[in-house]
Each structure stands twice: as C-alpha cells, then as structure tokens.
C-alpha cells in the first residue's frame, strides 16, 4: 500500500454522483453569498484594529497582499472544483493528485482550520452580543461571560453565549442545506448593508493627515499585518466543499469562489482605508475588540454603533455557519473514503445532511469556544489555512501535467506561474508566523499521522479497489 497512492478522478466523480445522498439546492448566487458569509465577519469588525497596529495606515495594502494570495489560490480551487465537483475541497483534490498521505495530512489540517475557527469566532460573537445586551441594560452573570482564565483577575468558568450560538448553528446545519442557505443569505444581505452604512457615515470624517507616514513600520510591518489579517479570508474555500449540493457545480463553483473573494477584498480595502483615515492607527490599541465602534466614537456618530453591533453579530453568525458547514463536508468525504469511521458519512434520510458528523463536530466546537481562551484558539487557524492553500496550488500544477486530457470547465490562467505565485505568497506568510504556532502545528500533524497509520490506512476504501485490480491482473 503506497503512501502516495491516488484515487482516480473518474472514481471520485463517480462516487460523488452515485454514492452522494446530499441534496443539490445551491446556485451561483447562493455560493457567492456563502463565500461572503464565510469571509466578512471577524476581519472587518475585529482584526482591522490589530492589523493597523502592525502596518499603520498601510493596512489596505496588507489586505490586498492577503487577498492576492487568496485570488491566486481561488483560481486553482476553481479549476479543481470544475474538474472534480465532489465534496471535500482541498482534501479531495490532494487525494487525486498528491497521494493518500498528503490528502490525510490536508484533511487533518482542515480540521484544525475549521474547528478552531468556529470556536474562535464564537468567542468574538459572544463579545459583540454581550455589548449589544449592555445597551439594553442587560448583564449576564460574570462567570458565564468567558472561558476560565480568559480575563485576568476575573473569575469566569464558561462562555455561555459562545456555546449557545454554535449549538444553534449546528441545529440549522443538521436540518438541511436549504434552511441553512436561507438563513445565511438573509444575514449576509443585512451585514453588507451595515458595512455600506458605516462607509456612508464615516467617509466624511477622513483626515488625510492620519495617513502620514503611510508605512511607519516599513514593508515588514505590512507583511506582518497581512499574515495577521489573513484570518479574515479563512473559509472562502468552504465554498468548494459545497460541490455535491450545487445544482451545476462545474459552472457555479468557480463563479461563487471568485465573485465572493473579489467583493470581500474590495470591502476590506475600502473600510480599512476609512478607519485609518478617521482614527490615528495608534489609538486602535485602546479598543481592539470593537475598532469599528472606536471610529464612530471619534466621528461623533454613536447612533450607528447599535447597527454596527447587529452587523458584527450577523457577520460572525454567517462565518460560524459556513465554517462548520465546510468542516462537516470534509469529514463526510474522509469518512466515505474510509479514512474516518462511517458515523461521519451517514446521511439523515429526511434532512439529507451528514447528521452525525454535524452534531459531533458542532458540540466539540461549542465546548471549545466556551472553555478555551481566544488567544489559544486563534493562533493555529492561519497556518492551517495557508498550508491547505499551498497544497491546492501545487496540486493544480501536478494535475495539469499528469492528466492534461481531463475536461476542465474552468482553467486557471498562467499555469504554472499563477499557482506557484499563490503557493509562494502563502509560504512567505507562513514564515512570518510565530515559532510557537509552528511547534503546535507540527504536534497536531504528528497526532494525525498516528491516527492515519493505526486506523485510516488499513480502512481506506481504496484498498478494496486495489484488491479488485490485483485479482483482475492475476
């Protein structure tokens, strides 16, 4: 059993067509909103303040650099999605091009990305929700407002709002993709309206003098901020996980990926430019958890703050929904391939969703958000995403040379240069992450390899295919 054995494209597509019991209910519009739901949230409402402290007024450049890495990667994703329209995203693409061991590593890596991202965002959601409640004079018991030791000098034991929101999202996803789609679409429209409201109000208070000097920390500061705000783009690849629930995946998946990414990058650049133009970047240190509110305070437009809280809550809710959605679909694909227990690929007869996987993963994410401090949750998400993006960029080059005959509804332009540029930028951003992040990342991969060699390798469904081929050859 070779560690680098691959599943043929034909068998992957056949499994997706014959074995999939998921409901096809999504079109290009739904996928675009799914992508916007995944991307716009924590990036605008939280990370803009943190990024500004590293880059200064050049924060829009940091978002552009991170966005370029994602656009290059999205072009590679789009080719894969149109060629292999099967659930599993980067995991499935790696299985077809780079081999089983690489596919397992990327699948296990995506567990890190999505699961911890859900938990991280749930903590941010809890903060904005509590801020909104305080506006109505409602205060939760202190012990139920944060994870243990999350706030120095304050005794907290459980983040109840974070736990509840993830369980609500889990319930929606378990009920079916149609219900989840409607909720996501409505919330995306509301949060985009709130962002346009912020732009319309705050743009009149921009003072160009605040943009001088534009790069106080040099290009290194811009890149460091790009590595930080890259979290803002985490999750756009979840669109590719919707392949088996898309009506016309070969046409609509590439559109959904690229449209959502371009729209969100434009909004990030505009909002971050306005924020650093209204408020000197040094002042964001005063309010890292609500930087948008700080801008409105400085502009004297407090009446918009309530709308911003609602927009942030809506934004983070859709991020939670899409992240957990992507996680369950990857587990579904890995389970169907035999690399994980069959529980994770069982589909509910009525709702036509991976019911068991949804509730198991949702419950784990809910408890993680409720019991683990935010700084411990978020430090691994970026490296997991960048690693996945790197392998997708490499994979599309490999597939071009190993299977040039495959019909491709969408072709990534400039192969191999654009995918190589995408992989290079991702690796460069990874190298700008902390050493501790790398250490924990390697520990996580080591745990995954133990599971692979003790369970997944011998239970892989590809074993049966190899046995049949061996008998036929004999």
TrEMBL record:
Source taxon at top rank: Bacteria
Example of a GO MF term: amino acid transmembrane transporter activity
Subcellular location: Membrane
Topological relation to the membrane, as annotated: Multi-pass membrane protein
UniProt entry tagged with the keyword Hydrolase: no
InterPro entries: AA/rel_permease1
Gene3D superfamilies: Amino acid/polyamine transporter I (1.20.1740.10)
Principal location: membrane
GO cellular component, one term: membrane
Transmembrane segments: 28-47, 59-78, 157-174, 186-205, 217-236, 257-283, 303-326, 355-374, 380-402, 414-431, 437-455
Entry annotated with the keyword Membrane: yes
Protein name: Basic amino acid/polyamine antiporter, APA family
């Amino acid at each position: 059993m070779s560690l680098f054995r691959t599943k043929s494209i034909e068998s992957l597509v056949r499994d997706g067509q014959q074995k999939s019991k998921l409901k096809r209910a999504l079109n290009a519009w739904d996928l675009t909103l799914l992508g916007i739901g995944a991307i716009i949230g924590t990036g605008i409402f939280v990370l803009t303040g943190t990024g500004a402290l590293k880059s200064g007024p050049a924060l829009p450049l940091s978002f552009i650099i991170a966005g370029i890495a994602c656009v290059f990667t999205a072009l590679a994703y789009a080719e894969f999605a149109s060629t292999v329209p099967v659930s599993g995203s980067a995991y499935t693409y790696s299985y077809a091009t780079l081999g089983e061991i690489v596919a397992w590593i990327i699948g296990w890596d995506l567990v890190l990305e999505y699961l911890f991202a859900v938990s991280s965002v749930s903590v941010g959601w809890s903060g904005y929700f509590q801020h909104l409640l305080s506006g109505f004079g409602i205060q939760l018991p202190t012990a139920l407002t944060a994870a243990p030791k999350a706030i120095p000098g304050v005794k907290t034991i459980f983040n109840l709002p974070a736990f509840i929101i993830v369980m609500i999202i889990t319930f929606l996803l378990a009920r079916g993709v149609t219900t989840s789609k409607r909720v996501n679409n409505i919330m995306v429209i509301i949060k985009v309206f709130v962002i346009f409201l912020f732009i319309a109000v705050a743009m009149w208070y921009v003072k160009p003098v605040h943009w001088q000097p534009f790069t106080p920390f040099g290009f290194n500061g811009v890149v460091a901020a790009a590595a930080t705000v890259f979290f803002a783009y985490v999750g756009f690849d979840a669109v590719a996980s919707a392949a088996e629930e898309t009506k016309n995946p070969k046409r609509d998946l590439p559109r959904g990926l690229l449209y959502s990414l371009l729209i969100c990058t434009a909004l990030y650049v505009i909002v971050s430019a306005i924020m650093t133009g209204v408020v000197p970047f040094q002042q964001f240190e005063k309010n890292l958890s609500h930087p948008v509110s700080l801008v409105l305070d400085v502009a004297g437009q407090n009446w918009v703050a309530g709308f911003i809280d609602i927009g942030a809550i809506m934004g983070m809710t859709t991020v939670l929904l899409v992240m957990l959605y992507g996680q369950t679909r990857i587990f579904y694909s890995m389970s169907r391939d035999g690399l994980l227990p069959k529980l994770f690929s069982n589909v509910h007869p009525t709702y036509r969703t991976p019911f068991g996987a949804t509730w198991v993963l949702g419950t784990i994410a809910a408890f993680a958000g409720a019991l683990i401090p935010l700084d411990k949750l978020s430090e691994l998400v970026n490296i997991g995403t960048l690693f996945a993006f790197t392998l997708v960029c490499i994979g599309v080059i490999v597939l071009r040379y190993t299977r040039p005959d495959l019909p491709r509804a969408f072709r990534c332009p400039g192969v191999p240069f654009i995918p190589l540029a995408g992989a290079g930028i991702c690796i460069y951003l990874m190298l700008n992450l902390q050493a501790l992040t790398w250490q924990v990342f390697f520990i996580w991969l080591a745990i995954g390899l133990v599971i692979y060699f003790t369970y997944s390798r011998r239970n892989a469904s590809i074993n049966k295919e190899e046995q049949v081929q061996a008998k036929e050859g004999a």
